[in-house]
Amino acid sequence: MRTKLSISVTALAVVALAACGAESGSGPGSGGGTVQPDVPVTGVHWSVDSVTVDGRRTAAPADAHVEITDEGRAQGNYGCNHFGADVKVEGDTIIVQPAEMTEMACEEKVQNFEDMLRAALTGRLRADLTDGRLTLTTQKGDSITLTSEPPAPLVGTRWTVNSLVSGDTAASLPAGAEDKAYLTFGKDGSVAGSLGCNRFTSTAEVSEDSITFGRLAATKKLCEGPEMDLERKMVKVFEGTVAYELNHRSLTLTGPDGEGFAALATDLPGEK
């Protein structure tokens, strides 16, 4: 069953790294102390690995992430819905105010995770940062584990299609078509991948905010059901020039009619 999301929330932005902290004291023997520096968590894209509640760990959906800006905002995706909240970093404590969020109807498993993450990512959290891995612990002992994640380049990354776009709404893929369609842009101006059923190749001329595709060549395998439904929609997107938006590890391609698809980076150049 398809679900829809109103994406009227302002696009989330990645900001520059800002680690605050200062030491103070009046020299040896003076009795002066030090000011605990803030944990350097701002300006980083934190991919949510899992949430542990009452001792039970639940793995996060692929797109769950958090970014904390040095202007005092936490923003990201709970796994299905986008969110934003006021936040303050005080030494090793992060204080997160109740969040605003979009209202996409999500699959039950994802919705359950969102509820857990939203509850855990509120209030006073103790932060522990070790080797690029961040653990946020609530006052009752529940925790969120996150990993710093570099952005994905357009070229060389395998982009796996995860939703369809129509104007200001996004819809989940037809049931049974998940993880079937993907594309990879080559350094030589080529693009290749799978449409969900058939493999394809084409050319791609990339500009600042648009991509112009050449003639699409694809295999002729006959498929039925959700895979072919997805393929028909993707073929239409590959006709001519489309707008594209690259946001960290997500890519959206949209045609002049507002129809398109979104994809997540599932394999980056140099990653194993």
Automatic annotation (TrEMBL):
- Signal peptide span per the entry? 1-21
Q: Which InterPro entries match?
A: DUF306_Meta_HslJ (IPR005184), HslJ-like_sf (IPR038670), Hsp_HslJ-like (IPR053147)
* Organism domain of life: Bacteria
Translocase among keywords:
no
**Keyword match Signal:** yes
Chain ranges of the DUF306 domain: 40-144, 152-261
Q: Which Gene3D superfamilies match?
A: 2.40.128.270
Name of one Pfam family that matches = META
Q: Name the keywords, alphabetized.
A: Signal
Q: Which PANTHER family match?
A: DUF306 DOMAIN-CONTAINING PROTEIN, HEAT SHOCK PROTEIN HSLJ
Q: What is this protein called?
A: META domain-containing protein
